[in-house]
Specification:
The complex is a heterodimer. Chain A is α/β, with parallel strands linked by helices. Chain A has 2 domains: 212 residues, 3-Layer(aba) Sandwich (Rossmann fold), CATH 3.40.50.2000; 161 residues, 3-Layer(aba) Sandwich (Rossmann fold). Chain A is built from 15 helices and 15 strands. In chain A, helix 4 crosses helix 5 and helix 9 crosses helix 13. Chain A starts with a strand and ends with a helix. Helix content of chain B is 41%, strand content 14%. In chain B, helix 1 packs across helix 13. The chains are: A alpha/beta, B alpha/beta. At the A-B interface, helix 14 of A face helix 11 of B.
Chain lengths: 377, 388
């Protein structure tokens, strides 16, 4: 089969699971074309694949502690390319794929529909109207419109892949809402993660070890600093802090010996494999990665970001870790770390979902679904 | 069973049990009550229809034929409300009430127990016979919500009808654990003025745990009561697939009479089909976990036998969905969906078998059922009210 995988470039989660699926399809001898933009395209290329440039779709803008919705809508409209549709149409026509898999990238769906090519959508959120709630009349109205648009889109695709555990273990379950008609098309693939723990080599990190994926810039910097302060409170717990490429680690004075700050990790999986807990925002893909490696989570969802807040709430509810906030003090962060390291129930729960991720084999199950359904057409 | 018209001894009550035939849950608990009344020396008459009547007769009792009241129609994974209303109206006839009145005249009961069967209440009221309603769902209007104007209006009518019925009876028996342990608590919205009429009896189960001899089954054993017909077939197949993933866990499928095991290729060694059985309790006692839909009757039977539950409620069936959510909330088991893949079903089975709180909570539910003695408690209530 020739498969075109298109991905939304807001955050790298879509890219990471697009890569997981792409690698699985390539490994089975299929032909894969990635379509991406911005950082997402860069990541694909860094990993060693080529990617077709596709127009950007939505633009998220953040400010002090949260997402700025008006700003995001304005930026999205400003960046919208009038020729975006025709460009993606031309790309699809040129590649002539047997199937298009679109990770939250809606222009790709329109193009595939226009060319009568089977189209599968990957999403971890379908209640986007939640984004628009309690934000004034114009934004709410836009939310209603968005909801209608999404529902119609869901009805038009051949299948919807939820890159998460099936119910009742679905982490993004509070962000999913489908009509009964659409439910028939759902496939809960299990996590789409590029590596399994069994395939990943352990690296020598001092234990217990905490991997923090909260960047040290923008509105997340206060959390980064709080985690650093937490590390100073108990030197027997070790930390790797991923600061992001724009942050110079030397600007953090008095770095304790139990902390290492890294600007970028090319391959995060050995760190997952060798850590005992992960500190992360509330993004879905990082959660899936941590859980498929059986690691408890401390989640700091972006304030006002209902999707992340819902994910974090499920993590806590299911006993996979704890939900924290920007205002959580270092002493309490330390308490949460000790709790997830020591609490047997959290350990059992996360081991269970690691095993389940292995048995579900998300990328393989999705490949088999496409082979079966597209192959039959 | 006594002959109709026979004179009754002092303190010997004549009880007429009328039951709704949609699902066998109503029948099963009426059988539990009938058995207890009979063993205490009272007279019990059963009125039923369809499969329900067959079950009463298979159990060894005689049943009077009564007209069906409510007919539920399902299609692909859900309950179809519109079709159910149309079918119910089509099946009703003005002569139905007359038939029940005739039955009451013939049997002359001291009390009528009507399990989800409303004609029985109307007839008993007409004849001034004390009547008790048995029910586990009191928010029927939820059924009708968000299903369009026609169904919504039908819901309003139904609600006002029920409210009047509940006020007119002598008592309401809820065959569930008393609060805060009631599995049906989310299906419970009743106006305050009838609070005093409600009696939470505890589970009404035909056999007590101690009376049943366990079927010798290889352990751990999962008992599945999910039928392999209609919209539940997909779940049945998923459970069968889950069984193939771990041969260390054994499965017993209680299937309907229409299931031919040979229609399922490659049944693994760890799976056994029982066919239909009117007495599933030895299987309950010989198992470690029950997989079922979200019907109240089977949930209560499982809990009274101390078994954790994986519940697959019918889609859009608010009552079952509410029951399944409570099961999960109370840590009696987990709520699943027909979209749950076999790997995740297996993960749920392992979790429920391995994590101690499920065994602890369901053992408590079993002990509570034993001390509540549901059927005897209902009998004593009626002995006091009717004879007293």
């Amino acid at each position: 089969m020739r498969i075109m995988i298109l991905m939304c470039g807001e955050g790298l989660g879509h890219t990471s699971r697009g890569l997981a699926l792409g690698e699985e399809l390539l490994g089975a001898g299929h032909e894969v074309h990635f379509g991406a933009y911005g950082y997402s395209k860069e990541l694909i290329e860094k990993v060693g694949y080529s990617a077709h440039e596709i127009p950007s779709e939505i633009k998220l803008v953040g400010k002090a502690g949260g997402l700025d919705f008006k700003g995001s809508i304005e930026a999205t409209l400003k960046n919208a390319q009038i020729l975006g549709g025709p460009r993606i149409l031309k790309l699809t026509r040129d590649i002539k794929p047997d199937v298009v898999v679109s990770d939250s990238y809606y222009l790709g769906i329109l193009a595939a529909r226009a060319l009568k090519i089977p189209i599968y959508l990957i999403i971890n959120q379908s209640n986007m109207e939640e984004f628009f709630k309690s934000r004034g009349v114009p934004i709410r109205l836009l939310g209603e419109l968005t909801k209608k648009l999404y529902n119609r889109t869901f009805e038009k695709v051949d299948g919807i892949i939820i890159p998460d555990y099936p119910l009742p273990y679905t982490v993004c379950r509070r962000n999913l809402s489908f009509t009964h008609k659409v439910k028939e098309k759902l496939f809960y693939s299990g996590p789409l993660v590029r590596q399994t723990p069994e395939e990943t080599e352990e690296i020598s990190l001092e234990r217990p070890h905490i991997l923090s994926l909260i960047g040290g810039f923008g509105y997340r910097e206060p959390i980064f600093r709080n985690v650093l302060e937490t590390a100073k409170l108990d030197r027997s717990i070790h930390y790797t802090l991923l600061s992001g490429p724009s942050v110079d680690p030397s600007k953090f004075a008095d770095l304790p010996e139990n902390v290492e700050i890294l600007r970028f990790i090319k391959d995060p999986f050995p760190y997952f494999r060798s850590s005992d807990a992960v500190i992360a925002p509330g993004g879905h893909s990082t959660m899936m990665e941590a859980l498929s490696f059986g690691i408890p989570l401390l989640s700091f969802p972006d304030e006002g970001h209902s999707e992340q807040e819902s994910n974090a709430a499920v993590v806590e509810e299911e006993g996979y870790g704890r939900r924290l906030s920007y205002s959580t003090r270092p002493e309490v962060i330390l308490e949460c770390i000790r709790e997830v390291l020591e609490d047997e129930r959290i350990q059992t729960k996360t081991k269970r979902v690691r095993r389940l991720a292995g048995e579900l084999s998300g990328p393989k199950a999705t490949r088999e679904l496409l082979e079966k359904e597209v192959g039959e057409k | 069973m006594p002959q109709v018209g026979e004179e009754k001894e002092p303190n010997r009550m004549k009880v007429l049990l009328l039951m709704c035939g949609e699902g066998l849950g109503h029948t099963s608990r009426c059988l539990a009550l009938g058995k207890d009344f009979l063993s205490a020396g009272h007279d019990a008459y059963f009125g039923a229809y369809g499969y329900s009547k067959d079950l009463v007769e298979k159990t060894g009792y005689t049943a009077y034929e009564i007209p069906p009241e409510l007919t539920l129609v399902g299609n692909a994974g859900t309950l179809n409300m519109r079709k159910s209303i149309a079918k119910t109206l089509k099946n009703s006839s003005p002569g139905d009430l007359r038939k029940i009145l005739k039955l009451l005249k013939e049997t002359e009961p001291d009390v009528v127990l009507s399990d989800g069967y409303y004609l029985g209440i109307l007839a008993a009221k007409h004849r001034k016979t004390p009547v008790y309603f048995i029910g586990h769902q009191f928010n029927m209007e939820e059924f009708f919500r968000n299903k369009g104007l026609f169904v919504g209006l039908a819901g309003k009518l139904v609600k006002s009808f029920y409210a009047r019925i509940f006020r007119s009876v002598d008592g309401i028996i809820v065959p569930d654990y008393p609060l805060p342990y009631s599995v049906n608590r989310r299906n419970f919205v009743l106006s305050r003025d009838i609070n005093d009429m409600i009696f939470f009896s505890g589970p009404l189960i035909r056999w007590k745990y101690g009376e049943v001899e366990a079927k010798k089954l290889p352990r751990p054993n999962v008992l599945s009561t999910i039928g392999a017909f209609g919209y539940r077939e997909a779940i049945f197949r998923s459970v069968l697939e889950a069984a193939k993933l771990d041969p260390g866990i054994n499965y017993t499928f209680i299937t309907g009479p229409e299931i031919d095991p040979s229609q399922f290729p490659e049944i693994p060694d760890n799976v056994k089909f029982t066919g239909f059985t009117e007495n599933p309790f030895p299987y309950f006692k010989g198992s470690d976990l029950v997989i079922t839909a979200g019907g109240h009757g089977t949930l209560l039977e499982s809990l009274a036998f101390g078994l954790p539950i994986l519940s697959f409620p019918d889609e859009k069936h608010n009552e079952q969905e509410n029951n399944a959510s409570t099961i999960e909330e109370m840590e009696y088991g987990k709520r699943l969906s027909y979209l749950t893949r076999p790997e995740a079903i297996l993960a749920c089975i392992r979790e429920v078998l391995e994590e101690e709180q499920y065994a602890r909570k369901t053992r408590r539910a079993k002990e509570l059922a034993e001390s509540l003695e549901g059927p005897a408690a209902v009998r004593k209530l009626l002995e006091e009210k009717i004879e007293g």
